[in-house]
Design goal:
The protein is of the alpha/beta class. It contains 25 helices and 22 strands. The longest helix has 32 residues.
Length: 692
Amino acid sequence: MRLRKFRVRAFRCIHDSSEIKVGDLAAFIGKNESGKTTILEALTLLNKDAKVSELDLCDEMSEELKSEMKVVEGEFELSEKETKLIQEKFPNLAEIKTVKLYRTQMNPNVQYDFGNVKISEDANKRLNSWENFIVKIEDFVSSVPNPIRIRLDTKFLSGHAPRTREAFNSMMAEFNNQIYLLASDERKVINEWEKIYQDLDHTYDTLLIGTSERSALENFVEERFHPRFVYFSDYKKILGNIDLDEFLKETRGIRPKGLEYIEEFDKAETVKNLFYLAELDTDKLEEVQNSPSRLIKLLHTASRKLTDRLNPAWKGDPIHVELRFNPGNILSVVISDVHKDGTVTNTGLLNRRAEGFKWTFSFIVNFAAETQRSELKEAILLLDEPARNLHPIQQRGISDLLKGLAGSNQILYATHSPFMIFDYTPGNLLVVELDKRKHLSHIYYDYWNADDTTLTPILYGLSRGLVESISDREIGYNSRPVIIVETMTHSMYLNAFDKFLKDPNLSMNPLNIVPAYNKNSVLPLAVFYRNHGYNTFALLDNTEESRQISTLLQANGFKSVQIIFFELGGQPKQAIEDLIVDEDYLYAVNQTYAVKLRKEGYTNLIKDQVKARGKRSIVDNLNDIWKENQYLGWEKFDAEEICRYICEKIALDEAEFLSDKTKDQFRALYRLIAERIRQNQNIVSETVTRLR
């Protein structure tokens, strides 16, 4: 099950979040005390065993809370497999693709809403319910001889149904022990009991709590599919020297008293995580302490496993982690830097490293261990500031870790950092704001409508160097038209060829060319500029993804005349590189890669050889050739590097390889842009005239 929408009401500072859509990897952005943590903690109330505390209910809504209210609700999308399993179990029901879960302040249990699906609530004796199972046990007990029956503890028969398989198994195991203890000489009693007890796992699988079709369905969904919210908020620091005697006391429940208790407990938790990643068993460590060879082998294996598990999330030069056993039953954590040339430097205790390094190391250890220990799969991970105190380079490492987990889990996280925003799709980026007068949190799905100061991390992520100019409307109203392009490569080509053509009638100088961070940032960046007074256009590739961007732009008020696709003579061109004659572009490719790939046997590519690949764009054809030759060390084709080569040659006045045809094709692009600007000006003028 994946969370697709949620709503929070009357929870702490949130009166009503309204219905919010979320994706599989969603970030919450907002200033301090805006309500980000509150949202994450509210969602944990949808866990099976969670409870709503009266202290968490909003004081300002005491009147509304006199009636039952859905404090938190979530709409979940079922996978095809989950839908199929429900159909197999309940063939008479219509197909169920979504289910709502909600918790109120008056009901201790999470409740289910299956929408318009018709489900019977009438009692049905044919269902294999808890009540029917109890009748079965009571019939058995009544058949047991009285001297035995009066000694049996049957209080569980009048209690509530067990909520989990573990509780059910524990309860039945205890009753089973009673039967064998009290009726060991009564063969008939034992035989009858074995008929009931022998297939206990199957019994629970078919045991549906309640006697109606609805309660049966709710129980089935709760047992099989109920989502699990895992909340991470406290990231503790690991110390360099570990006193194993103190650690073992802690793990065995012998805790020191006094003010240092919290610090000692945190240390024990982080050590557990470190040992978990290293697969190091403390009992095994004690066992081999007096055997140097076995101790060295054990610690070497543990160090290798620990290093292998940490490096994927570690940016910069890799590190090597070594666990060393010292006199006094002290285990030391020793860190070394491993450089690209294979040299190892800066070997020393973790304690000797900078505070930022220790915090980064500790976060990765704790987070990786907690997620791996939980065997997270199809969980919803809630992270509160996962990148705090981290350098931007290391933040990218954490983002890679999150992306890896997002394959089999859904991740919602709160952050202040522009370096932790890597998806600008609405629903994967949400803004949280606090109304200070009413002390209410608001969540924006269309995040570009939020307060400018709240948006600062997003703006820096979208186009970091332009934040001040975007947010100043006086600049926007008095500026040249803005054309948003999808990548830095587009901007480089447009500016370079403008200089190269030296045609004042077609110059791009009246335009501000703004490169977006990536394709999915074109939409919000264009909206930001338009909302701040700029006459805004978008220049897009002719691809399916770019056409989707065009659709979203028009849905947000852009006219079709403001959206320009690459074309030539009325025919679509997939990318800006396709405006360069193939022979001209291949000259730059051959000049660049003949040097880079000389040792790998690179030979100059020709037009027919590239065209034979049959792709729509020359870049796609070259990507295909490079992919085929990866085993030779060609890696990936770098179109941006070719762009830099061409632009550099233009700047140096050494671009004789660019033909007149290439120049003419760029002239056609500039004419198209100029014509669209003129058309838009006419539309605006006509609109103003009509309004007058």
